[in-house]
């Protein structure tokens, strides 16, 4: 009989290392029915998904994995419920989170064992009254998921409480630095025996990253975060040093060397739309030089514009690069504009150069690339938040 990995006797590490092959709960959550897999498991009645937020950052990922593990092991057996962590992004977007990949990899955990949002038929399950949801690291479902709201039975989060109270839902919301501190606290209190080195390492990593290396001056860490991290460390003396974890994962987060041009652009993108023109505005976290020097840049940019956008594609791309030159307290900001249509590219450049609230103080960078127009931005304080309205105003005209 096929066993449900998350329900089995295995530790979290074993569950995740085994990968997804033959994974019965994946079929259940994919199909939204309990036909074959249900029969194999002795009749699955419900799926209890632990869902992180749409950013699917390290905190959300760790909380979903650890808390689903906790639920699977602490809920009475034989209730015909499978507990599954669901990462709230498509599987194809996992490489866009190199810090998450790095942490999972360092623990020997295989992404194959994870269930992503595009693999989970949550809406179908809900319609068939087979879904129960726990939200971690967010407390309000996004607009496209509001109809799942009646399925939510529990919330554990550290963001501002936005959900209206409902009788059937148990809400734990505390303004701590990391949601992993709340999940860790629950496990330490209710089922400390379920914590193993893998689980403790994941929780500690999320806490250290979200609390910015536990530095008080960063304004994120709370007493609660510190208490949970200290207790994890007391129980697991073999946990890697917090500072090392922070340095490694922080560097990994901004390491785009393993990403394709397309993935780099998609990583942090906002889209402006006016009439039938769409413009993608992408944030980059490396100097433009490192990026525009890539071979086949023009082909990649053109393909991105054509393949990725709405039906007509993106008419133009605006790249906003921010980096911190060594020893400099202020960021270096650069802007690049690309369009398959030369006239549009020139017009967008003109609009950005002419802007006066704020004045971006753009200085053309010659010879960086023949296909894009590149600028050094003199105004350090102007971020994408400021540039979007300039572009929106241009598109309206
Ligand atoms: Mn969080």
TrEMBL record:
> Source organism's superkingdom?
Eukaryota
Q: Which cofactor does it need?
A: Mn(2+)
**One MF term from GO for this chain?**
exopolyphosphatase activity
Q: Which residues form the DHHA2 domain?
A: 246-395
Q: Per its UniProt record, what SUPFAM superfamilies does this chain match?
A: DHH phosphoesterases
Question: What GO cellular component entries does it have?
Answer: cytoplasm
Pfam family membership, one: DHHA2
InterPro entries, per the entry: DDH_dom, DHH_sf, DHHA2, DHHA2_dom_sf
Keywords for the protein's UniProt record, in alphabetical order: Hydrolase, Manganese, Metal-binding
Please state which protein family the record places this protein in: Belongs to the PPase class C family. Prune subfamily.
Q: Which PANTHER family match?
A: BNIP - RELATED, EG:152A3.5 PROTEIN (FBGN0003116_PN PROTEIN)
Q: What protein does this entry describe?
A: Exopolyphosphatase PRUNE1 isoform X1
- What organism does the record attribute this protein to? Petromyzon marinus (Sea lamprey)
């Amino acid at each position: 009989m096929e066993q449900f990995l998350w329900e089995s006797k295995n530790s979290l590490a074993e569950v995740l290392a085994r990968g997804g092959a033959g994974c019965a709960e994946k079929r259940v959550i994919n199909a939204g029915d309990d036909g074959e897999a249900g029969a194999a498991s002795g009749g699955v009645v419900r799926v209890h998904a632990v869902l992180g937020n749409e950013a699917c950052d390290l905190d959300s990922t760790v909380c979903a994995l650890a808390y689903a593990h906790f639920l699977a092991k602490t809920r009475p057996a034989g209730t015909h419920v499978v507990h599954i962590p669901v990462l709230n992004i498509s599987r194809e977007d996992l490489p866009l989170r190199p810090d998450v990949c790095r942490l999972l990899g360092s623990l020997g955990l295989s992404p194959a064992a994870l269930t992503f949002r595009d693999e989970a038929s949550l809406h179908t399950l809900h319609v068939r009254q087979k879904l129960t949801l726990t939200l971690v690291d967010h407390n309000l479902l996004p607009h496209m998921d509001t109809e799942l709201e009646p399925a939510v039975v529990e919330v554990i989060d550290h963001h501002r409480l936005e959900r209206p109270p409902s009788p059937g839902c148990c809400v734990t919301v505390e303004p701590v630095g990391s949601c992993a501190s709340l999940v860790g606290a629950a496990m330490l209190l209710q089922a400390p025996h379920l914590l193993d080195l893998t689980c403790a390492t994941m929780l500690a990593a999320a806490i250290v990253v979200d609390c910015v290396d536990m530095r008080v001056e960063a304004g994120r860490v709370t007493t609660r975060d510190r208490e949970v991290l200290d207790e994890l460390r007391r129980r697991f003396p073999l946990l890697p040093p917090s500072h090392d974890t922070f340095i490694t994962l922080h560097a990994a987060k901004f390491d785009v060397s393993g990403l394709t041009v397309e993935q780099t652009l998609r990583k942090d993108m906002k889209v402006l739309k006016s009439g039938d023109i769409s413009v993608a505005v992408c944030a980059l976290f490396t100097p433009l030089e490192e990026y525009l020097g890539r071979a086949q840049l023009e082909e990649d940019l053109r393909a991105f514009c054509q393949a990725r956008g709405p039906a007509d594609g993106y008419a133009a791309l605006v790249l906003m690069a921010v980096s911190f030159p060594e020893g400099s307290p202020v960021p270096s900001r650069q802007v690049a504009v690309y369009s398959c249509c030369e006239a549009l590219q020139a017009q967008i450049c003109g609009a950005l150069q002419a802007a006066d609230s704020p004045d971006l103080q753009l200085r053309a960078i010659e010879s960086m690339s023949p296909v894009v127009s590149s600028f050094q931005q003199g105004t350090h304080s102007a971020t994408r938040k400021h540039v979007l309205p300039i572009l929106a105003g241009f598109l309206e005209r």
